[in-house]
TrEMBL record:
Binding site for substrate: L55, E60
Binding site for ATP: K9, R10, A11, L12, R13
Cofactor(s) needed by this chain: Mg(2+)
GO biological process assignments: folic acid-containing compound biosynthetic process; tetrahydrofolate interconversion
Catalytic activity field: (6S)-5-formyl-5,6,7,8-tetrahydrofolate + ATP = (6R)-5,10-methenyltetrahydrofolate + ADP + phosphate
Record-listed E.C. numbers: 6.3.3.2
Keywords: ATP-binding, Ligase, Magnesium, Metal-binding, Nucleotide-binding
GO molecular function (one): ATP binding
SUPFAM superfamilies, A to Z: NagB/RpiA/CoA transferase-like (SSF100950)
Protein name as it appears in the record: 5-formyltetrahydrofolate cyclo-ligase
PANTHER family: 5-FORMYLTETRAHYDROFOLATE CYCLO-LIGASE (PTHR23407:SF1), ATPASE INHIBITOR/5-FORMYLTETRAHYDROFOLATE CYCLO-LIGASE (PTHR23407)
Protein family according to the UniProt entry: Belongs to the 5-formyltetrahydrofolate cyclo-ligase family.
Length: 198
């Protein structure tokens, strides 16, 4: 059974990845600006003083300007650093935003490394995703970092996935370890989805 789910996910990820690669630079920039404005509004509506976010890759919906802006406004922004054991360390974003290449070729911050526990203090988590369905079920890119992180938190804050509009799907294949998100932020909307956060 889980083999079928894994195959379905793999096929869907490939399709979503390809769709993202077809976007033009202009489309990416427009989307990043719109998402940044929505993330600013989300942070303000929650009154978040400390958040976690991620540094977007070229094909992901852009978060880097938002991160620099939030850090510049005095909000503590934790950025993930991947570890070989499947957990995430964290570093505090700075406005100069120095970036290095991490374990999987992902952009990562260069600041002082904090333990996986550091994320327990944030008021809001902003995470990447390949797609999210209308029940709040999130599908990532298959490494499980954010599922592990969210699943291990004693008191999980609101979790929002940043995706493109076409990646909000009616339903997704799911496995036991998959963690739901509170909502999604796309270029055109901020959607609250999951009522079942732990």
């Amino acid at each position: 059974m889980s083999n079928d789910v894994e195959h379905a996910k793999r096929a869907l990820r490939a399709e979503l990845r390809e769709r993202r690669q077809l976007l033009s630079d202009a489309q990416r920039e427009t989307a990043a600006a719109a998402i940044g404005a929505r993330l600013d509004a989300l942070v303000d509506s929650i009154g978040a003083r400390s958040i976690s976010c991620f540094l977007s890759t070229t094909t992901e919906p852009g978060t880097r300007d938002f991160v620099a802006r939030a850090a510049g406004r005095g909000i503590r922004v934790l950025l993930p650093i991947t570890r070989a054991d499947g957990l995430l360390d964290w570093a505090v974003a700075t406005d100069d935003g120095e970036i290095a290449e991490g374990l999987h070729g992902l952009p990562e911050p260069t600041g002082e490394v904090l333990s996986p526990m550091a994320v327990n203090d944030v008021d809001l988590m902003i995470i990447p995703a390949a797609a999210v369905d209308r029940t709040g079920m999130r599908m990532g890119w298959g490494r499980g970092y954010f599922d592990k992180t969210i699943g291990s938190m004693q008191k999980c804050p609101p979790v929002y996935a940043v995706i493109y509009d076409s990646e909000v799907l009616d339903s997704l294949p799911r496995e036991v370890h998959d963690q739901p998100v509170t909502g999604v932020v796309t270029p055109t909307q901020t959607l609250n989805l999951s009522q079942t956060r732990h």
